[in-house]
Amino acid sequence: MSDPVDDEADEGAGGAEGGAPPPGDDRAALIEAAAGAYRARDPLGAIRSHPAWHDLDEAGREEAFERARSLRALEAALDPDGLSATARAVLARIRAARDG
Amino acid sequence: MIDLDDHLPAIAAGDAAAFGRWLAGAEPRLRLSLRAYAARVDTEAALQEALLRVWQVAPRHAPDGRPNSLLRLGIRVARNVAIDELRRCRVAPMDDAGLEQALAAAEAGPPRAGPDPLLRRVIEECRDKLPGKPAEALAARLAAAGAEPDEELAARLGMRTNTFLQNFTRARKLLAECLERRNVDLGAELA
């Protein structure tokens, strides 16, 4: 299999919202980040959009959507209860709210 | 036909584990119902918000006698969350011909069946072949289960965030190649 990536890559993926698409590597990182299941909450408790999603153009956002679909399916397939990271995150929030 | 409403009485009684079983079957359909919004709304955030609202309204939900009524309600809730987000961002609402299609699909075909132990074993065998850093990145994301940002996962592994994401991408591609060699089509088998 291919070599892993060493920790010498550039930091700071990100194009400006509404600007030109970010260069290839940065764009790929933004899509991978936006396809993850983690979402922060705002001070009122609402779930916030991922910062990387805002930095993507429309085509990149659609790629992130499809990537998320396959990742959630992979996570669910690996989970003994068939739960994706999205489902686990939602259940964690429900249980945290219930348990105070 | 799988009817996820079988879990409804327990969900209405506040059983989070039952809601988990409902989620395992319902999530792919709900996510797919948001595809038309993907270019304008962060559908992952919208979906999570919608799922929390479904949990909140489930005790008051009255089934209509047809299968998967809570799933159909969820599709409407998810769409409303997406539209609210469009309005909040002052983006013009869009023509949403997909809603009726999504609702019809929820009635026509079965939601995702339960876990497949054989498929899990094949994926695990491919996962075992991943090189160190990609394997670490994949394991970190899986273990976090959407509860921690990539920045924290990367820091714990001693990687920069971009490096972490590159290793995760490598893991995902290697896994897909391995599964393809074993005639497991991620798109078809895991959809």
What would your notes on this structure say?
The complex is a heterodimer of chains A (100) and B (191). Chain A is mainly alpha-helical and 100 residues long. In chain A, 50% of the residues lie in helices and 0% in strands. About 12% of the residues of chain A have low confidence. At the A-B interface, helix 1, helix 3 and helix 4 of A face helix 2, helix 3, helix 6, helix 7 and helix 9 of B.
> Average pLDDT across residues of chain B?
90
Unreliable segments of 5+ consecutive residues of chain B: none
Radius of gyration of chain A: 16 Å
The coarse overall form of chain A would be: globular
Give, in order, the helices and strands of chain B: HHHHHHHHHH
- Reading the helices and strands of chain A in chain order gives HHHH
Largest interface: A-B, 66 and 73 residues
Q: Overall mean pLDDT score of chain A?
A: 83
SS strand fraction of chain B = under 5%
Quaternary structure state of the chains depicted: heterodimer
Query: Gyration radius of chain B, to the nearest Å?
Result: 19 Å
Overall helicity of chain B: 55-70%
What share of residues are in beta strands of chain A?
under 5%
